[in-house]
Amino acid sequence: MVVCCFFRSYVNGEEFSSVGLREMLYDDQKGGYWFTISIVEVYLSFALLAYLIIWKNLGKQWYLYGFVLSVVFKLFFYVISKTHIFDEFFRETFNFLSLYKSIYYAPFFYMGVVWRVYLSKSINYLAFPTYARRRKYEWTLLACIVYIIAVSYINSEGSSKLEAISSLVFLPVAFACIFIFRDSITSKKRICRWLVYVGRRTLPIYLLHYFAIVILLRLGVFDILYGIAKIPMVNIIVILTITGVVTGFCCMADNMLKRYVPWLHSAIFSPLDCMPTKPVSSMTNV
Predict the structure, then answer these.
(1) Cβ proximity of 66 and 117 under 8 Å
(2) Predicted confidence (pLDDT) per residue in 145-197, tens digit
(3) Stretch (H or E) spanning 50
(4) Does residue 127 carry a pLDDT above 50?
(5) Which end of the chain, C or N, has fewer beta carbons within 10 A?
(6) C-alpha closest to that of 34 among 88, 97, 89
């Protein structure tokens, strides 16, 4: 984040100062690097929940309770964040720790946990459900409905309810596509090899892509594309093109760091590439 802040100042011809860095540190967005902080905070909450479930020998339904609790806490925090007391005493701390983002996105993480616990390893149960299994799916469905209503209510201030609901419809559709096509996605196909290659470099891509965006902004690429991207299909093509270019840039930078500065690459991105990998036969093995 510090290096990117310095790089942005250099490219824009601005003087790098500690004031600008402090503003970034106390900004909820962190110049785009909030995710690395929030994912740690969300995962720590999940690790604590998992530890209690194992330590107390609780049932796996407690993962579902954790999901419901994350939704309730999100709604509670939404109400509290609108008060004067929160602005006066807590807002700066929450900005510094990016807790806004952590609380907002935690239910998405726990929804994935619930999906994993209840459905992913027992998807065949849907065809021959017993009464007990039907009860589990009913609870899961109820939790998802509550979550969709809650998020739609919160998002209704910044966007229309139709947009909020339609954006969430994509989630079960994505899950359905994964299960429908999971057996036909193999490492023998070139596009799957590309996806696996990119998927194993998501951390370098995430940490490096802001450098590419700074360069594109400085060159005025987005200003040029803004006018032609208002047509929906053109917009999709433009987004995919820019995404492909930026992803390729990040992968090349990642390879250069790995080749010429291996100790730095290992320190920042972890030495996972040094571990032997097995061939990917299907999405169930990824």
Answers:
(1) no
(2) 666 656 555 555 555 555 555 556 666 666 666 666 666 666 677 777 888 88
(3) helix 34-55
(4) no
(5) C
(6) 97
Band of residue 283 on the pLDDT scale cut at 50, 70, 90: very low
Whole-model pTM above 0.70? no
Work out the average pLDDT over 261-283.
64
Read off the amino acid at residue 170.
F
- Mean pLDDT along residues 262-275: 72
In order of 1, 151, 234, the CA distances from 212 in angstroms are 14, 32, 22
Whose structure tokens read 């969300």? 42
What span, in angstroms and rounded, lies between the C-alpha atoms of 246 and 123?
37
Alpha carbon distance 121, 179 (integer Å): 11
Give residues with Cβ within 8 angstroms of 262, minimum separation 6.
none
Rg from Cα positions in the chain: 22
String of DSSP letters for 92-119: HHHHHHTHHHHHHHHHHHHHHHHHIIII
